[in-house]
Amino acid sequence: AGSATITITQAADDTYNASGEKTVDVTVNGVNSITLSETSKTAAYADGAFSLTATVPTTNYDGTLTAASSNEYVATVAVEGTTIIVTPQAVGSATITVTAGAGTYYPATAQAECEVEFTAPEGETTAPGSGTSGTVLLFGESFGDNSGSARAWDDSYSEKTGVSDVYSGITGYTVSNAKQSKNTMGSTRSGLTQTSQGTDAYIIVGPLNVANYSNLNLTYQWKAASTKGTYSTSAFYATSSNGTYTEVQGTGDGATSYVGRTYTLPTAAQVSALYLKIVWNTSNTQGLIDEVQLKGESSAASTTTVTINPYGYATYCSINPIDFSSTEDYTAWRISSIADDGTITFEKITEQIKGGQGVLLYNKDADGVNTSTATITFADGDTEFSDAQNRFVGTTAPTYVASETAYGLSTNKFVKNNVAGVIPAGKAYIPAAEIPNNVRAFTFVFSDPITGISETQTVSPEEFGAMFNLAGQRISQPQKGVIIVNGKKILVR
Question: What is the pTM (predicted TM-score) of this model?
Answer without folding.
Answer: 0.60
